[in-house]
């Protein structure tokens, strides 16, 4: 099992518009595309909290995926869709990066 983690850093002046786009457009897109649904997949959306007064909003989206093929599909389809919409709207005021994690039993 794998977890794909995408972190988003959003500047305060566009936060409200970005959040609205994320919740009303991107999350439903993920669900319609089959990400974060089903027995083998879940997603968690969190806000990253800091104690050093960073003025940006930082979020983390984590989705469990069964294999690296689904990761490739996520990157091409989902993050491609996100970049196509958010890039022109927000530019560098809403940055993101994605990491792939492998779950290890301990």
How would you characterize the overall build of this protein?
By secondary structure, this protein is of the alpha+beta class. The chain contains two helices and four strands, in the order βαββαβ. Strands 2-3-1-4 form a four-stranded antiparallel beta sheet, with helices on one face. A hairpin with an 8-residue loop joins strand 2 and strand 3. The two termini are 14 Å apart.
Rg is: 14 Å
| Mean of all residue-level pLDDT scores | 91
State the total count of DSSP E strands.
Answer: 4
Helix share, percent: 25-40%
Low-confidence stretches: none
Figure out the total of helices.
2
Q: What is the distance, rounded to the nearest whole angstrom, between the alpha carbons of the first and last residues?
A: 14 Å
Task: Let me know the largest β-sheet.
Answer: 4 strands, antiparallel
Order of helices and strands: EHEEHE
Which strand order does the major sheet show? Answer: 2-3-1-4
Class derived from helix and strand content: alpha+beta
The percent range for strand residues is: 25-35%
The geometry reads as globular
């Amino acid at each position: 099992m794998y977890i794909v983690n995408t972190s988003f850093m959003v500047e305060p002046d566009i936060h409200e518009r970005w959040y609205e786009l994320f919740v009303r457009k991107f999350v439903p897109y993920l669900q319609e595309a089959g990400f974060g649904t089903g027995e083998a997949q879940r997603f968690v959306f969190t806000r990253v909290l800091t104690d050093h007064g960073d003025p940006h909003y930082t979020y983390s989206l984590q989705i469990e995926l069964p294999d690296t093929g689904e990761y490739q599909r996520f990157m091409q389809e989902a993050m491609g869709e996100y970049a196509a919409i958010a890039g022109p709207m927000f530019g560098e005021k809403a940055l993101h990066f994605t990491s792939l994690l492998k779950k290890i039993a301990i």
